[in-house]
Each structure stands twice: as C-alpha cells, then as structure tokens.
Amino acid sequence: MNRELPVLAIVIPCYNEEEALPITTARLLELIDKMITSSLISRDSYILCSNDGSRDNTWNVINHLHKKDSRIKGISLAHNRGHQYALLAGLMAVKDRCDVSVSIDADLQDDPDAIIQMVKDYRSGMDIVYGVRSSRTTDTWFKRTSAHAFYSFQRKMGLDTIYDHADYRLMDNNALRLLSEYGESNLFLRGIVPSIGLKSSVVKYARSERVAGESKYPLGKMISLSIDGITSFSAKPMRLIFVTGLILLLLDLLVALYVLISYFNHATISGWSSLMLSVWFLGSLILMGLGIVGEYIGKIFIEVKHRPRYAVAEELF
Ligand code: UDP
Ligand code: MG
Questions:
Q1: Distance, CA of 127 to chain centre
Q2: Is the pLDDT of residue 311 over 50?
Q3: In the predicted model, is pLDDT for residue 6 greater than 90?
Q4: Which of 51, 85, 216 gets mutated to test ligand 1 (max ligand atoms within 8 A of its CB)?
Q5: Distance between CA atoms of residues 137 and 208, nearest Å
Q6: How far is the CA of 287 from the centre of ligand 2 (A)?
Q7: 85 lines ligand 1 (CB under 6 A)
Q8: Which residues surround ligand 2, an ion (CB under 5 A)?
Q9: CB 73 within 8 A of CB 46
Q10: Ligand 1 atom at shortest distance from the alpha carbon of 14
Q11: What is the bridge-based pairing of β-strands 100-103 and 8-14?
Q12: Which of 114-118, 134-138, 259-263 has the lowest mean pLDDT?
C-alpha cells in the first residue's frame, strides 16, 4: 500500500446512466488531474464504471469513453442486480489494481470535491473514510422524509449504520480485502463496512441535484434495501414475535381473572371459561415458541445463502 502517492480508483455503479456518465466522468477526470498536479495521487489513478445490466445505452457510452481516455475503465454485469451488487462488483474489480478506492454515484449528487479531503484523510492513516451529507436541501421533500424514516426505522430494528452516509466512501486496499471475505448474499454495504472495523473518519459535504437523468431509487427499491439491511443484520423482528408472546402471556393473567370472576358469578355458559383460558394461554405460548424458533431460523437463513453474488459478463481494463 502506498500512502504517499496512491493509485486511486473511483468506482461508479451505473444503471441507465447514459445521460449522466459523460458529464460525471469528465468532472471526475478533471478532479483526478487536479489531485495529480498537487501530488496527492499517482498518475495511474483511474475511474471504473460498473454497468448494472442497464437497459439503455450505458455500456456503449462506457466503451466510447474508454476509447477516448483509457483511464475510464468498465465492467458490465450480466443483468440488473441492484446498486449494492454493482458497487461490490466494481470494488472487487479494482481491489488488486489500486491502493485506495472511492465509490460514488453516477449522478454527482455527492460533491466530488470531498474526495480530496478523503484522500488527505487516507494519507494521514485512515483506512475507511465515510462521506456524510451535511444537508439535503436539494432532495425533494418526499425523498428527504422517506430517507429519514428509512434510517430511524433501521435503527429501531437494530441495524446500526452511519447516519446520512450513503455509499460515498473511501476504502483502501486493506478494507477491500477484508470486504471480499464477506460471503453473504444479502448485501448491505452500509452495514457491512462499519462492521469491518479498521481506522475510519468522516468527511461532510453538501448534497446537490442530479446532473442528468432521474433517480433510479424509487420508494420500492428503498424499502427493499431497508428490509435487506434489517434482515441480514438483525434478529430483532424475530425477537418482536417473542416479546409479543410474552406480553400476551401477561395479559393472559388479566383475562384469567376476568374469566374466573364471570365463572363464579354464574354469568357464563358451560365450556366458555375453559376455552377462554386455554386459547389465551396456548396462543401466547405458541407465539413465544415461534419467536424462539425464529431466532434460530434467522441465523440459519443468513448462514446458508452462499450464492454467487454477481456475474461479470465483460471487462474493460
Ligand atoms: N444504481 C445501480 N443499480 C440500480 C439502481 C441504481 O447501479 O438498480 C446506481 C445508479 O446508477 C446511481 C446509484 O446507483 O449511480 C444511485 O442511484 P440514484 O442516484 O438513482 O439514487 P438516489 O440518489 O436517487 O437515491
Ligand atoms: Mg442519486
């Protein structure tokens, strides 16, 4: 690892980004040149576009950009696997070909200039640097509110992530090597990366608008990312079943009291009291039992999914 003059690889997951990519790569090349001039990074630094099975012209655009400037490289996934997988595929492709990587979205909503500070942090010894949004004024009200709901729901469900950090981050060689050892299929990088450990810092930046195209993260994808995150990092939903059973068991005592009073007041028809008592008692026992079984199933579920996480169809190096 070269902390003095590192080879920097900027990794961009791209899904239907034909409009944004030419602008984004030009802007990033400019930034790379600037950092080379100020002796922050090596001349061999480059950009890697990870095409996530786009349905539009994205891969052609990447080929074209590669021809114009070979510092723009690309890989293409065989089908659309989602942002997290496209990003992982990109990071794994640069793992042995750089000293340090920075992942950034194709739309430049995350201020690229923050990369300079990230690299400086890396040079002063950090292995992972998280980009954290200092404001979200340019996002729509809906995007802002849903994103905040998303973070606080995750936290309540027992998943710890870095607040307002998306996937804009610097990871050095070492962090990438450790990341490559996670074999899980339910990929939620914002949960995995903090759990890797290593020395880390935070760089704040203002979030701006997309340079071109529209959001590829509608509410549906956000919810499924959230569920993926929670179910691969937390057994809390399962625990909630157990807790519900326990609460019902306590309520059962009150119900039993009510049933017995009714019974001794001769206000019941025959069979009602015994049925009521057993339904409540058995119901809560069954829920608690399910909760316990759920705890184990949750763990097994996470352990056994050793599927390949992505299939790289083509490479441009
Ligand atoms: N993306 C991807 N695969 C997908 C959806 C999105 O690779 O299935 C990429 C997209 O090209 C972009 C990044 O993930 O580079 C973030 O997406 P977007 O900017 O649309 O999300 P938002 O900023 O609206 O949350
Ligand atoms: Mg975006």
A1: 19
A2: no
A3: yes
A4: 216
A5: 8
A6: 42
A7: no
A8: 105, 107, 109
A9: yes
A10: 11
A11: parallel
A12: 134-138
β partners of residue 170:
102, 129
- Judged by average pLDDT, the poorest of 119-128, 189-198, 277-286 is 189-198
The closest residue, in CA terms, to atom 1 on ligand 1 is 83
Q: Which residues pair with 314 in a beta bridge?
A: 76
Dihedral class, residue 203 (left if φ above 0, else alpha if ψ from -120 to 50, else beta):
beta
Check pocket membership of 83 for ligand 1, CB cut-off 6 A: yes
Contact 106, 118 (CB under 8 A): no
pLDDT given at position 300:
81
What pLDDT was estimated at residue 82?
A: 87
13 lines ligand 1 (CB under 6 A): yes
Residue pair 39/283 in contact (Cβ under 8 Å)? The answer is: no
Residue nearest to atom 25 of ligand 1 (CA): 217
Integer Cα distance of 242 and 291 in angstroms: 4
Q: Say if CB 275 and CB 259 are below 8 A apart.
A: no
Cβ of residue 107 lying under 6 Å from some atom of ligand 1: yes
Reported pTM: 0.74
Q: How far is it, in rounded angstroms, from Cα 250 to Cα 126?
A: 51
| DSSP-derived 3-state class of residue 282 | helix
Percent of the chain with pLDDT over 90: 43
**Cα(125) to centroid of ligand 1, in Å?**
30
Total residue count of the chain as it appears in this document:
317
- Of the listed ligands, the closest to the CA of 217 is 1
Does residue 157 carry a pLDDT above 50?
yes
Interior CA angle at 132 toward 130 and 134, to 5°? 160
**Residue 85 CB coordination number (10 Å):** 21
For residues 132 and 110, the answer to whether their CB atoms sit within 8 Å is no
